[in-house]
Amino acid sequence: MVAFTAHTVVAADVSPEWVRGVLDGSEGSEGSEGSEGSEGSDGSDGSGATDLGAPMKPAFLSALAAYTGRRIGALDQMMLAGPLPGRPSPELTGLPELTEITDSGHPRVRRAHRYRDDVRVYAADGGLVLVGRGLAGRWEMAFEVEPDRQGRGLGRSLALAARHLLPPGAGAVWAQVSPGNAASVRTLLAAGYRPVGAEVLLVAR
Fold first, then answer.
1. C-alpha radius of gyration, the chain, whole number
2. How confident is the model over 83-119, as pLDDT tens digits?
3. Which CATH architecture has domain 76-204?
4. Angle at CA 178, nearest 5°, toward 97 and 194?
5. Rounded to whole angstroms, how far apart are CA atoms 53 and 180?
6. How is the chain split into domains, by residue range?
7. What does the pLDDT look like over 19-52, one tens digit per residue?
8. Rounded to whole angstroms, how far apart are CA atoms 199 and 205?
9. Is 167 exposed, middle or buried (0-12, 13-18, 19+ CB in 10 A)?
10. At what angle are helices 182-190 and 154-164 packed, to 10 degrees?
11. Which one, of 106, 102, 133, lies nearest residue 117 by Cα?
């Protein structure tokens, strides 16, 4: 599920009729036929089409998860930034030289390999940054700062470095962050990322 301004993408093996049926209340989670939607308490006709946020609400997500046999993941804000030329040198990012690592038991790295392909991980003193291909083949990034190094600008430097680590031809890099993680949201904004939408991934059980 990917939500943008005034529209939402339902990237799942379901028909448009099923989606409309669930949103207006005429379809259950199993896709069975039901009665027409009743009038909503807000004065609407009960149709999900009048509520642009309906596809990201628990009722629709739960129905979609039940219908597809998947598990609902976290709600994340999506942020986007363009690539930057050159490798992430200290002059460009304020970081010491990054070292690529191919074997890491770090939880962030293990998670990246579950959700992304072509993952590349780079370590710096006090943190790491990674890039890889995620949803629909887009390039995504993630970063982690060790607790005793937080609050010193390292996160911003790592997020900025990710923009230099994209392969030739990559048009942008995406970041996902919990809306409640205000510190990381501010870090990404400072590194040139801009909010563009929200997503909820439904993953295999």
1. 20
2. 999 887 777 677 767 888 877 677 777 877 888 899 9
3. 3-Layer(aba) Sandwich (3.40)
4. 65
5. 18
6. 2-68, 76-204
7. 999 998 855 544 433 333 333 334 344 444 568 8
8. 18
9. exposed
10. 50
11. 133
Q: Which residues of 61-71 are buried (b: 16+ CB within 10 A; e: fewer)?
A: bebbbebeeee
